[in-house]
Amino acid sequence: DTGVSQDPRHKITKRGQNVTFRCDPISEHNRLYWYRQTLGQGPEFLTYFQNEAQLEKSRLLSDRFSAERPKGSFSTLEIQRTEQGDSAMYLCASSGIAGGTGELFFGEGSRLTVL
Amino acid sequence: GENVEQHPSTLSVQEGDSAVIKCTYSDSASNYFPWYKQELGKRPQLIIDIRSNVGEKKDQRIAVTLNKTAKHFSLHITETQPEDSAVYFCAASIYQFYFGTGTSLTVIP
Questions:
Q1: Which of A14, A32, A56, A58 is most buried, judging by how many CB atoms fall within 10 Å of its CB?
Q2: For chains A and B, what is the number of CB pairs under 8 angstroms?
Q3: Which of A100, A103, A106 sits opposite B43 (nearest CB)?
Q4: Predicted confidence (pLDDT) per residue in A3-60, tens digit
Q5: A111 pairs with which residues across the strands?
Q6: Which of A103, A107, A108 lies closest to B34 in CB terms?
């Protein structure tokens, strides 16, 4: 399968713990995006990368959130000191058009539940 | 940043009728406007898109129109079928994508 894959699919953690999600984009795609989605809402932009460079981070994103994309391949999203409000689906997407926009391909998402 | 508003939030239609979902955006620099369909528990998937140099695009029963002056775009689904029932999201993009809050469409057989 050459689609976007995310791991883990589900994560339950206690408040205050750190969690890390991994995203493997479609291999030839140079852009990678992270979104957060809560029930009944659209995907909320968190951050995106072009190759290994993080080009933009949402101003709404807490300092507890950090994302990396070493070597421009897979990406990780870490949430430190989780809070109950962090409970959501975290979606990763990739796109292959350099210098412009193209179709976003989404992964299945990583569902986080903070107790 | 970009702000995308989407209406209505819920929509019920009889099978065979048409459905229209409308979105507005705030950043005149946005140049790409995709529509995504998300079925329960599944990932969003692209159903149609339009770029800012085009006013209308059609793909079988689905069409999208764009009014750059007014900064709004719409999704039109004709001859709706029960399998069209899902949540639909519009988005506006320059490089990053900003999504609307979604429309839950129910097609009643």
A1: A32
A2: 59
A3: A106
A4: 999 999 999 999 999 999 999 999 888 899 999 999 888 999 999 999 999 998 988 7
A5: A10, A89
A6: A103
